[in-house]
Design brief:
333 residues, two-stranded antiparallel ribbon
Length: 333
């Protein structure tokens, strides 16, 4: 199998309206200087780079505009002519900026943000990540202070409440399994921006009779999870569905409205030769398949409730182990 063909495709590959579903991808990494990363990405994607602001470059390709940036607003926005800075620092001018740039590139992640890509086009991300690995890109495991992620923003097949509930239930059921496979680095384990959903919310979500309308679904989630800092962040989706309702609970200019989920859990392990973009994507496809197989979803939900009973089996087996065994028995992995 070529690198380009490693990405599995879900059965539900189109939206309700007909077009192919799209996926946004965000990759955090280090190990390459900013200008070097821009040059490599432009070359590998046959794109044209254009600096739009300090440490933000747009690379126009046939697939759309990729953005490469330093993932730190204070450094991107730093202006040594700013009168608020100490005079001694302003007087150093270019030399101070060179030192700041050198330090920033060592400790702040560089980020590649892809445009929304058709699912069938994700092989280009697989190829890009593999090439950057060969060029010396580094991920979370390289240093204790690195906490780099690979984020997915998959468009949903439709926005009906029944569909949303299935996807949310599938994620809640698979969270421990996904975390064991993709939350590898200790630095990200101690961060607050990839936390699980509230257990009280999960209990409500996985109840056998849970069948909310959109407003109830949003209020149930936001009552217990009023933050962007979740392993599966629903706030961009909620901004798209009903922004006034969202703003009753959360007001944050960083929330961008889009009809997608925001999957933030996985590490970027790009310097590991056994790791690929498809390593993350194909496990997301497992969630896709479960969400779109209602019979299996109901069965695993029953297993979840059984796993919370007090008995010897549950004392000696984790939910992650139970999930892994169930997925293998039912042919998902």
């Amino acid at each position: 199998m070529t690198a380009h063909n490693r990405c599995n495709m879900p059965e539900q590959q189109t939206t309700q309206a007909g077009p192919e579903r799209k996926v946004g991808v965000e990759i955090e990494l280090s190990g390459l200087a900013y200008e070097s990363l821009v040059a490599h990405v432009a070359r590998l994607l046959d794109g044209e780079p254009r600096l739009t602001s300090r440490y933000v470059t747009r690379v126009d390709t046939e697939a759309g505009a990729f953005t490469i940036e330093l993932d730190s607003d204070p450094i991107k926005d730093l202006d040594l002519a700013d009168q608020r800075l100490p005079e001694s620092l302003r007087e150093l001018g270019t030399h101070a900026m060179d030192v700041i740039d050198f330090a920033a590139e060592k400790i702040v992640p560089l980020e590649i943000v892809a445009p929304p890509l058709a699912m069938s086009a994700l092989g280009m991300i697989e190829d890009l990540v593999d090439e950057l690995h060969r060029l010396g890109a580094e991920g979370s495991r390289e240093a204790i202070y690195f906490a780099f992620g690979l984020q997915l923003n998959p468009e949903l097949p439709d926005l009906e409440p029944e569909t949303l509930v299935r996807y949310l239930q599938a994620f809640a059921l698979l969270y421990d399994w996904l975390k064991s496979r993709h939350q590898l680095d200790i630095s990200r384990k101690f961060t607050t921006y990839i936390e699980p959903w509230s257990s009280r919310y999960t209990d409500r979500l996985l109840a056998a009779d849970y069948s909310p309308d959109i407003e109830t679904l949003m209020r149930d989630y936001l009552r217990y999870n009023p933050t962007r800092n979740k392993a599966l962040d629903l706030l961009p989706l909620f901004a798209h569905l009903n922004k006034p309702l969202l703003e009753e609970y959360v007001r944050d200019p960083r929330i961008k409205s889009r009809p997608t989920l925001h999957y933030r859990l996985p590490d970027c392990d790009i310097d590991n030769p056994a790791w690929h973009f498809s390593t993350v994507w194909n496990d997301w496809v497992v969630l896709e398949q479960l969400a779109n197989t209602p019979r299996d979803l109901a069965d695993l939900r029953q297993e979840f409730h059984k796993a919370r009973e007090f008995n010897f089996h549950n004392l000696t087996h984790s939910w992650r182990e139970t999930t892994d065994n169930w997925l293998r028995l039912h042919g998902y992995v």
